[in-house]
Design a protein that fits this description.
mainly alpha, 14 helices, 2 strands, about 65% helix
């Protein structure tokens, strides 16, 4: 919005031209989303408590979680409002990548909201049935992937690039839609599985979102992209504003979600955040780099797959409980130790991923 207003404001004073700079708008995006989160957070928590929208705790899980029963949930709505408001204020709204990312974030957020509403408000333990959840996730993801495919103009947009290798690429063609679908839906559900401890999922999301902002800025600038030998995607640089909004909203939510949490994000937050990371990685052509950065999300997902497969095939469990963070809880690790160590691992993985900008 402010990009559009700047066209008129510069006629009043040329100093308003700074609002056209991408990096400055990204910074303002961080601060705006952070401010919205911190201002609306206390009101949202009070409202959720008044309406008794609290988390139900599984009795077969770690006993330390029983004290969290009744903690307000569906707080992910705060993250989504903060991200979308900030992104729409500071982004160039003529950029189709911005609208596709907003569509995916809002779409997956709506799916998560329905799931949370049925579980918490309607007291339906099943929530949104899995088949319907995956159906609507598929609809949104395939729609977004199809829109991106139809918008390709240079051929770079539907090519798979391998990190650390200068000339190793695969042209995906129509398979781009299928591949993008799996990245978006897979990342969404991976973040959802990780969201089980106070602050465990949100800070890795913030770190990865910030790193994707770096890739978007570099990949959207023809000079930087050529120098770093990364794919140049016309218009992708604008996503740094959305990434900034995600960072600000995530930090604002972490203010209330840090151990011991005052509010949980619920599926409305985790599904949306994961999907937005996935679609941005698809746009900037860094899907495999996302796989590196999101190593914690990958490990959590694999632990569930391995646990289910092992139990069905052999009748034995590999882990004491899945996802992985519950395994360490049952081993006796204090919750803050698990959280911080997973954060540290994510910092390391993000740094490794950022090194792919130069190591080729």
């Amino acid at each position: 919005m402010f990009v559009w207003l700047t066209q008129y404001l510069v006629e009043i004073h040329t100093g308003f031209r700074v609002l056209q700079y991408l990096t400055l708008r990204a910074i303002f995006g961080v601060l705006t989303a952070l401010g919205v989160s911190l201002i609306l957070g206390p009101w949202l928590i009070r409202t959720l408590r008044q309406h008794q929208i609290g988390q139900s705790i599984r009795t077969d899980g770690p006993k330390s979680h029983l004290s969290k029963s009744g903690t307000p949930t569906m707080g992910g709505a705060l993250i989504l409002v903060s991200i979308i408001v900030s992104a729409l204020l500071w982004s160039d709204l003529t950029n189709h990548y911005v609208w596709i990312t907003v569509l995916v974030t809002a779409g997956f957020g709506a799916i998560g909201w329905v799931d949370d509403y049925r579980k918490v408000v309607q007291r339906n333990s099943r929530g949104l049935p899995a088949r319907w959840k995956y159906l609507w996730q598929s609809v949104v993801a395939i729609l977004a992937a199809s829109m991106l495919y139809m918008a390709t103009s240079t051929g770079v947009e539907n090519t798979l690039f391998f990190p650390f290798f200068k000339n190793l690429t695969i042209t995906l063609g129509l398979f781009y839609i299928v591949f993008s679908y799996f990245v978006i839906v897979g990342t969404s559900n991976a973040v959802n599985l990780t969201d089980g401890l106070d602050g465990l999922a949100i800070l890795p999301t913030v770190l990865i979102g910030g790193a994707l902002g770096v890739f978007a800025y570099a990949g959207g600038n023809v000079v930087y992209a050529e120098y770093l030998q990364i794919p140049y995607v016309i218009g992708a640089g604008e996503l740094i504003v959305f990434c900034g909004a995600m960072v600000g909203a995530g930090l604002g939510f972490l203010w209330f979600n840090t151990y011991p949490a005052q509010v949980f994000m619920g599926d409305v937050g985790s599904l949306a955040l994961g999907a937005s990371l996935g679609v941005m990685a698809v746009i900037v052509r860094q899907e495999l780099v996302l796989f590196i950065m999101g190593g914690i999300f990958v490990a959590e997902t694999l632990s569930v797959i391995m646990q289910v497969a092992s139990y069905k095939l052999t009748g034995r469990r590999i882990f004491r409980m899945a996802p992985l963070h519950h395994h360490y809880e049952l081993k006796g690790w204090p919750e803050p130790r698990i959280i911080v160590r997973f954060w540290i691992i994510t910092v390391i993985l993000v740094l490794v991923a950022l090194s792919t900008l130069k190591i080729r």
